[in-house]
Amino acid sequence: MISKKMRATLAGSSVIRQMFEEGNRLAKIHGAENVFDFSIGNPNVKPPEKVKTVIKEILDNEDPNYIHGYMSNSGYEDVREGIAQDLNKKHGLNLTYKNVAMTVGAGGGLSIVFKTILDPDDEVITFAPYFGPYGNYIDDCQGKLVVVPSKMGTFEPDTKALEAAITPKTKAVIINSPNNPTGVVYKEAVIKELADLLTKKSAEMNNTIYIVSDDPYREIVYDGIDVPYMLNYYKNTFGVYSYSKSLSLPGERIGYVAFSPEMDEAEEVEICLSNATRNIGYTNAPSLFQRVILECLDETVEVDVYKRNRDLLYNHLLDLGFECAKPEGAFYLFAKTLVPDDKAFVQAAKKYNLLAVPGSAFGCPGYMRMSYCISYDKIERSLNAWTQLANEFKK
Question: pTM higher than 0.90 for the full model?
Answer without folding.
Answer: yes
